[in-house]
Amino acid sequence: MCLATAYSTSDPNSVILEYVSKVEVEDGKVILTDVLGDRKIVEGTLAMADLTGGIVRINCFD
Q1: Cβ–Cβ < 8 Å for 26, 39
Q2: Main-chain phi, psi angles of 17, to 5 degrees
Q3: E runs forming strands in the chain
Q4: Which residues 6+ apart lie within 8 Å of 29 measured at CB?
Q5: pTM for the structure as a whole
Q6: Three-state secondary-structure class, residue 13
C-alpha cells in the first residue's frame, strides 16, 4: 500500500495531512483521506502527486 504526505506548495514544510490513502478533487476543493478514514478538505487544486515518493502537493487558496 502506498501512503503519502500532503503538503502546501506555498510552504513545502507545511504538512496538511499524513498517511494519505485517497485524494479527490471536486469543485475547487481537494479532499484528502488518511488510512484511518479521517478526511481533510482544502480549498485549492492538486499541483502534483508523486505516489512512489509518497508526496502530494496542493496549491491552497487562502
Answers
A1: no
A2: -160, 140
A3: 4-8, 15-26, 29-34, 39-50, 55-60
A4: 41, 42, 43, 44
A5: 0.91
A6: coil
